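Q: Two folds, back to back.
A: First:
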Amino acid sequence: MMQVLLHTIGVGLRELQDCLSSMSVLEVEVRDYFQGVIRLTDFKVEGADAKNIFYLRELDDADKLIESIKTKKNGKAVIIGGGYIGLEVGTAMRINNFDVTMVYPEPWCMPRLFTPSLAAFYEGEVKLNDGRVIEADIVVVGVGARPMTALFKGQVEEENGGIKTDGFFKTSMPGVYAVGDVATFPMKLCNEMRRVEHVDHARKSAEQAVKAIKASETGKEIEEYDYLPYFYSRSFDLSWKFYGDNVGDSVYFGDKNPLSPKPKFGSFWIKDRKVVGAFLEGGTPEENKAIAKVSRLQPPVENLDQLKKEGLSFATMI
């Protein structure tokens, strides 16, 4: 038997275990405990409580933003943050004929993934550090979220800002599992403990935990989680995918001219003379499968200049 407990707060894990006759998947006030949106009020920003400032965490947040877009047609929007939320909301606002200004403190957009060369293709004038005031009908804040583990403090082991798990997403407390953004797990491909913030991992880690729970009930064995990091985004006619790890030397290839009708370019990341990650803009399904395969297999690379010359064909021939 499996039970799901919703909106359960203020009790310890051991107390919950005592109430259950079998292992359970526990969802504890997700909005407040598992992922907390970083808000302007956290920085004590003047005017942080003004109207028409939006954050995107719940479906209700998106509904409110859509209603505001409808009432502020052809208006001005300021997007605070240059990550996933910032870039994709900025695209949506432009599609709805808003004049969009993006503001973020980092030197380029998507700094946890993009190199300066990759970012230069996607961004325009977005820096603001001289105290100017920008008029806006709508402000959307997408400056990140943090895993909220306070409810479990002292009850389960933590590591790297999350709840430590094994390759089956078991925590240090028997019968308790953690999945998604909040879980720090052994990334076999990189041979280290990692925490991943992305919907693809959230879905796959939950699937792995359910398989592990069912296997423990039936006495069967399953393979440990072997995740290939995967990120993607779509903006206007652009669409990119990334697989693997973005560490080591980066090697660029392809056509990054923004005036090209269909730009296709990418990057490989090389560490210890092996390909450990790959990025591709404008790839076909077959080409995207090829960069996923090359990131999984991590083939050796002898000459970076030759790799740059071969470009995407290096991956498609693996």
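A: Second:
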Amino acid sequence: MNITAVDNSNIIETNNDACQCKLYAIERGYWKDPYLKILTGSSHHERRTPEISLGYYVRVHGLRYLIEKFIKLTNNQCQIINLGCGFDTTIFYLLDNENLKFKHFVDVDFEELTEIKSTKIRRLPFLQKKFPQENQSLKIPCGFHSSSYTILPADLRDLTQLDHQLKYLSEHQILDFTLPTLFISECVLIYMSSEHSSNLLKYLTQTFAQSCLFVNFEQINMNDRFGQIMIENLKQRSCHLVGMDSCENKTSQCQRYINANFTSAQCITLNEYYKNYLNHNEKQRIEHIDGGLDEKELLEQLFEHYCFSWAYRDEQNLGLDRITFE
């Protein structure tokens, strides 16, 4: 096995870890998601600490908030591309919500993951019934295509491959490079070199130059002691955060977008989101699911090392600057 394959397998394993954490939180009642368990085929979930479950709740809740604001601002005239999607179930969440319409949704990831996800959707009735109009004439090896949803295999570090795949969808009138486009990225860029992530962001602003929003969830403040411990724990599993340069602080997070020709960028830590934007009653509910927090110091430490960042280009003057937490 070559080194690239080895690196990919370690990155792919982070999807499995995230799924297990989410499944435990879902089972405990932090939020509802009947799809992830079916996609993963997993019924045993190791116990996680309340801090981990709260972190995943905030991750899901915050991203969905920004996604919904984008869809509503564009009056449903938009497309969504989920970069490094893993077994993420956002597509099912949106399809279950009648008020959240879109033109097309694309999941992108390594072919090892897209092949599994595509096969599960085809073979499992509970998933397949969400996509009654699969287009068999459009051949996407290791992928899937229906009228509303496409699973696309691509290595985000290989822009030639990504460009080929996206243009293939454009040529078949599935994607429209002039349509407002939302990009979702969860703990993806940090596993790419700064050169690769910078080139990816520049490619997106060039290809979807009219109107696009990039929403990112990942690590921040990684230079302190707590951050170094996180890095070492991942290194022990042969998982290296090679894109850490952009995760030093809010300034570095936002600067990467400006350097890639986004018009403006914002960034907030999970602490800021949790304290300032999460509904008080909802906060009380989730904090008591696992018996309450003995102390919040560990939670605050953890939340200070993850963030939401987002950036936009808005040549169509849609008002993408209004997309923020309120």
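Q: And?
A: Confidence is low (pLDDT under 50) at residues 1-6.
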